[in-house]
């Protein structure tokens, strides 16, 4: 439900383009986090437990990026570029609980993607697994085409809105 004072929802195309831009920024965040991890613990490639540690470090870096941006201004760099802000139903800034829930829901949708693609790479007859994972990943974003207020599934579940930011003249 959009608040009574009518926050204008951001257009779907702007949100999807912003998602692609944020993905590029996340690649840089993951790259830098991986370099820092390698500087501190150089033998990651030889140890399975250290690989899990690296993965958890990457997840915490990505969470830290989003949490810091959304707590400070409700916007990541990509969201600032495309004039989109993440707010609560009341139009307020998010708290850590909402940020964490939103992050976890997106993570649940994204985590099966890489293992499924790797599985299909080594088992060409089982490509349907990667297709299923891609559909699972895309579903929260495709939900916006079914939702009456055009919200992504994770925003609907957490009670957040991606709204258009008015430019100051």
UniProtKB/TrEMBL annotation:
KW Transmembrane helix (keyword) present: yes
Topology in the lipid bilayer is annotated as:
Multi-pass membrane protein
- Where does the source fall among the domains of life? Bacteria
Record's keyword terms, sorted: Cell membrane, Membrane, Transmembrane, Transmembrane helix
In terms of Pfam families, this protein maps to: RDD
Q: Where in the cell is it found?
A: Cell membrane
Instruction: Give TM segment ranges.
Output: 16-40, 52-71, 103-122, 128-146
Residue stretches making up the RDD domain: 10-158
What is the protein name for this chain? RDD family protein
């Amino acid at each position: 439900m959009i608040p009574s004072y009518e926050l204008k929802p951001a257009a779907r195309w702007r949100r999807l383009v912003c998602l692609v831009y944020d993905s590029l920024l996340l690649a840089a965040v993951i790259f830098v986090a991986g370099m820092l991890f390698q500087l501190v613990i150089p033998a990651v490639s030889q140890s399975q437990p250290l690989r899990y540690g690296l993965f958890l470090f990457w997840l915490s870096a990505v969470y830290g990026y989003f949490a810091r941006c959304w707590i400070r201004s409700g916007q990541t760099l990509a969201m600032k570029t495309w004039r989109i802000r993440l707010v609560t139903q009341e139009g307020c800034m998010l708290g850590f609980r909402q940020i964490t829930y939103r992050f976890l829901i997106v993570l649940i949708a994204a985590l099966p993607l890489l293992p499924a693609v790797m599985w299909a790479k080594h088992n060409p007859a089982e490509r349907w697994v990667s297709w299923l994972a891609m559909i699972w990943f895309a579903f929260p974003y495709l939900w916006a085409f079914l939702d009456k207020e055009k919200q992504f599934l994770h925003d609907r579940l957490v009670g957040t809105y991606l709204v258009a930011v008015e430019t100051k003249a």
